[in-house]
Design brief:
This protein folds into 2 domains: about 90 residues, DNA polymerase, domain 1 (Orthogonal Bundle); about 180 residues, Intergrase catalytic core (hpI Integrase, Chain A, Orthogonal Bundle). It starts with 6 loop residues before the first helix and ends in a 7-residue tail after the last helix. It has a two-stranded antiparallel sheet with strand order 1-2. Helix content is about 55%, strand content about 5%. It is elongated, with a radius of gyration of 23 Å. Helix 6 packs antiparallel against helix 8.
Length: about 300
Amino acid sequence: MTEPLSDSTAISLFLDMLSSDQGAAKNTLLAYGRDLKLASETLVGRLAKAGDEEIAALSASWAGLAASSVARKASALRRFFGFLAAEGLRTDDPSRKLPRPGAVRPLPKTLTAEEAAKLCDTAEAQFTANPSARTARLVALVELLYGSGLRASEVVSLERSALDPSRPYAIVRGKGGRERLSPVSNRARASVQRYVSFLDPGSPYLFPSIRGHLTRVRLFQLIKGLAADAGLPPQRISPHVLRHAFATHMLAGGADLRSLQTILGHADISTTQIYTHVEASRLCDVVNSKHPLADKR
């Protein structure tokens, strides 16, 4: 007689499928695993066998959570139960009982072009005052983040050979290990070329550290420190905010969505479309401040 499928086995099989068949990124696997294990604990190990009443009870346990959190958890469970049904491990799919909150996706934080320029100029001024590997690295980092729209994880893990002065692009390994060619601004390429002159020729990474390459945590610290030096609120600025600024300013400058999707490495154009809302919000502010009747009721 076949033993009933345990939650731990079912979750492991599901995560293996996401990794091997769909090339899911490490952070995606961790997020799915965490949500599914918490759901299993709530149902006392009966997630894989859960019926309508148990799914309703699980949904009730999410009361008080933000709509975005509920939507994320429900999405993970829908994919999980869909996998079990597709593999013949269940004959039904109870996910129809999961909530479908109309979560409003928040607009990404961004910077004005003037604020982004101030960050870059401050880093350059620090190099001019004290030319060194440390200050050259800071200029290269901020110019790459704002001049290419790369993710923090993509920047810190760049191999030394990823950027060549003769090429207007970088070879980037993005989410799920997928490689792409990412255009890099002339300023960013020049700053990287200058920084490389300070770099140990034997380093395999563009931004090395004692244990491999620069960490994302250290990158966040460097960017926030630079923001403070530039007189900008550090809490408003991060590597990801610079990526958003790149995308928003590119769109405002006339870039089309499809090109922007390719540059940013978005698998789905719906992710890129969020920047149209950012630009639309800015245009609404322009209308409300410039229209001759804007201040009249």
